[in-house]
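Let us walk through a complete example step by step. Step one is to write down the protein sequence. Step two is to encode the small molecule, adenosine-5'-triphosphate, as a SMILES string so that its atoms and bonds are unambiguous. Step three, shown after the inputs, is the structure prediction itself.
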Amino acid sequence: MSSTLNSAIDVVARVVSGDGPTVVVVIQQKGGSGKSTITVNLAAVAGNSSVMHNDVEAAAVVAAGIDPQGSLERWADRVAEEHLPFDYLVTRGELGILPKLAKDPNRKRIYVDTPGFMEIDEDAEWGADPLGDGKVADAMREVLDLAHFAIVPITPEWLSWEPAEFTIERILKPRGIPFLVVINLHDPRDGEAALDKVKEWIDERGYPRMADPIRRYVIHSRAAEKGLVVTQYDPSGTALRAKEDFSALALTVEQVL
Ligand SMILES: Nc1ncnc2c1ncn2[C@@H]1O[C@H](COP(=O)(O)OP(=O)(O)OP(=O)(O)O)[C@@H](O)[C@H]1O
Ligand SMILES: [Mg+2]
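Step three: the predicted structure of the complex.
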């Protein structure tokens, strides 16, 4: 049986096994690859789609962050909460919050932003957990135990490739967590060649990936400063294209789940 089919079966088994929400973890060892950006904008697009709405007060979609110093936490300080189509939650590394949320039948999707983890144990035996000790490692293990699916962002810059492979081979595969690799920060001005290189690298390894990349737009980094999500950008051609990228991602993820 193909590994893709195995993954699909695994995902179905995990999703149907509980009544609670589906937990999607956004994970990549390398910092700056777009984990926080993807988490909030995916939650925004999913929260906006009518399919995801409930008639209950709690939003069906939650964006959660586990990093004590992460960008989701900094972003959350700036955001006008009442205008968001999703709830957000920052655990600051505290254990026990996410497992409880993951049992809430009113929630449909929880997207979890994770910190980059450079302090891993490179010498850990193959098959052993390389996340190491400490608060962040414990918080990571808790999320991974709950995760039904993972999104691994990668950029056209090769520096992010090996950490993506490490994340997949050493963290996700040993736990049987199905995943999707998503190319982020593709500058449309760079043309197709730069993109083809990273696509080829992903495909050579047989990793499932989103067909099209999430493009690099300055509007995204400015939005992070202002505490805005993609669904709130001022109307413009770029805003539409930016939203289109995250809608495509949300659709791809929903098709797999
Ligand atoms: N598609 C994009 N277009 C433009 N800027 C982007 C895009 N994706 C991410 N960025 C910017 O790149 C920087 C890093 O992104 P982000 O904080 O989401 O990465 P991260 O993986 O969460 O990093 P860390 O591991 O440090 O938490 C941020 O300034 C963000 O605004
Ligand atoms: Mg981050």
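Step four is interpretation. The pocket of adenosine-5'-triphosphate (ligand 1) is lined by residues 31-37, 70-71, 115-116, 184-185, 214, 216-217, 220-221, 224 (CB under 6 Å).
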